[in-house]
Amino acid sequence: MNPERYHLTLTSDGRPAMHGWWGSESVARDKHRSWVGRWGRPGATVTLVDEDTGDVLTAWPKGA
Q1: What is the pLDDT of residues 4-47, one digit of tens each?
Q2: Burial class (CB in 10 A: 0-12, 13-18, 19+), 59
Q3: Between β-strands 56-60 and 15-22, what pairing exists: parallel, antiparallel or unpaired?
């Protein structure tokens, strides 16, 4: 298991504000929901990427 496979990024007004990496997709998705709930406001984006495949798994707001 790659402990840094799932990369979560919070940007604010286009600039990186926070990053996190997890080895478990379910934990990373829980963190994504938590970050959206805590930091989701106009100008912010929260994106979860699978670093092994390069796929964006989820993003907030939709289409970000």
Answers
A1: 999 999 999 999 999 999 999 999 999 999 999 999 999 999 99
A2: middle
A3: unpaired
